[in-house]
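can u pls check wat happens w/ tryptophanyl-5'AMP
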Amino acid sequence: MVVNAFEVSGKIDYTKLVDKFGSNLISDSLMDKLEALTVGKGRVPRMHRFLRRGMFFSHRDLDTLLRQVEAGAPMYLYTGRGPSSQSMHLGHLIPFLFTKWLQDALDVPLVIQMTDDEKFLFKGHYDDQTGDNLLDFQSLTMENARDIIACGFDYNKTFLFSDLDYVGSMYPNIVRIWKAVTTNTVNGIFGFDGSSNIGKIAFPAIQAAPSFASSFPVVLEADRNSNHLCLIPCAIDQDPYFRMTRDVAHKLVHKQHGLGGKPALIHSKFFPPLQGAEGKMSSSNTNSAIFLTDSPDDIERKIKQHAFSGGRETKKEQQELGADLEVDVSYQWMRFFLEDDDELEKIGQDYGSGSGEYWNTGKVKGRLIEILKELVAEHQERRATITDEEVRKWMAERSIVKNST
Ligand code: TYM
């Protein structure tokens, strides 16, 4: 398996990954603590299905953060998106849907970084005749921002920003991080070398900077003496950025900061591509992904033609052995998107035993198609109402702390 900020491939053993990265599995007692501070406060009816089903499975310092929040420390959420394609896909929804739940459940401010600078440095181009395409990434930021806003965040508590616009306020912290991290460290973590453009080597500090509340003097009304704790929800591929951040964090905050400046993290597993439960869904292969812009027909076609089946070759075998649910993409996708636990269990039992209403792949695919058509149509409806002017309002620097507890 390969898991890093630029590549996710192979069959991923998440327990091994946690060992390798040095993060921690979310224990039952941590889950209880989180439930007490969210459901227990009456802000959400139940734990998110991504927690109930172990999709968010790993963390760094979440236990310490929750203890301090319970004792009254201020906190905020930080997540982000690298706008590399016009449309986001279902995999990208995972951290955003979960972050929306966390925002409601903890009643806290949220900052969302759009790394248009990153995507230009890694994927952009320069041509002697036509110049470069830096500004294309800024317009992708606007497009992707509409998808993110459509996830239902609270405007009064959410600040969305493009690095190209907002970098000035973060710059003092970026410079501090540059000073604290060597090129050898960055090369070691991210695999850059002497042939990498210097922006790539500089970029990790820019993804690190929002982990410090003092990068948001207006938005979080914070300075270097603030005690804000930061929690970052993301898939585990982003962890390398924050390992680097945590190593130098103490240099950016005052000595009494509750976590020594370190951001806490909560990591998800990857939403798999259509072709099989390996690697992660990615934008580069359009037949491996369902995009938030796909039509109902696209969704139906892609699932019918491409969703890898764990069903057996013949009817007889299927009825004798049942499907292999672990490798069956349709079933795995339902675990992410079907809210009803009882229905999911029934489908798993029928399909896994080759009997009952959902005894075969066709039936399971049919139900998945219904679920996703509804989800994507609702998303598209919400997105269609979001104008450029509205996006600019979300991206305007303003305080988002007044309306949070
Ligand atoms: P990006 O745009 O690659 O991904 C955005 C978010 O989606 C997660 N993700 C997935 N989650 C589940 N299944 C998948 N198949 C899948 N593919 C992507 C990513 O982990 C990420 O959380 N450099 C970042 C942008 C960024 C960021 C951040 C992300 C800046 N600051 C802070 C998280 C937290 C990027 O290019 O993400």
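Residues 78-82, 91-92, 94-95, 113, 115, 118, 207, 232, 234-235, 237-238, 268, 270-271, 280-281 surround tryptophanyl-5'AMP (CB under 6 Å).
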